[in-house]
Write a structure and sequence with these properties.
This protein has about 110 residues and is mainly alpha-helical. The chain has helices spanning about 1-15, 25-45, 50-95. Helix 1 (about 1-15) packs antiparallel against helix 2 and helix 1 (about 1-15) packs parallel to helix 3 (about 50-95).
């Protein structure tokens, strides 16, 4: 359980690094820590002593914090992807401004 707590704190510190240049390494680190945490979870077997139960309650609260941090990091990545796609569409519309004009027969440019 102590190692689980250490991994959770490492996850929180890793997620706090939000530089875009290091995003790939941060994602790799997060994946490694999540894999390690999965293996540690399988090793936790009851019955528990009162001290272990108290630590378990702290770990549940810490786990909620980790889940919230992971969700916000994922939201940040999605926002960056959406912004990149929007920028790409904007560049396309700038290069070809008449690309999305409806061709209903009222005006047809033969030079295009």
């Amino acid at each position: 359980m102590i190692r689980w707590q250490e991994v959770a704190h490492q996850l929180l510190s890793t997620i706090s690094r939000t530089e875009e240049e290091q995003r790939d390494s941060v994602i790799d680190d997060i994946n490694e820590l999540l894999d390690e945490r999965d293996t540690l979870q399988q090793e936790i077997i009851g019955p528990f002593t009162p001290e272990e139960e108290e630590m378990g309650k702290k770990l549940v609260a810490l786990e909620q914090e980790v889940v919230a941090a992971l969700a916000s990091y994922m939201k940040l990545i999605r926002a960056d992807i959406t912004a990149a796609q929007s920028k790409k569409e904007h560049v396309k519309s700038y290069v070809n401004p008449y690309g999305k004009v409806a061709r209903d027969g009222t005006f047809y440019d033969t030079k295009q």
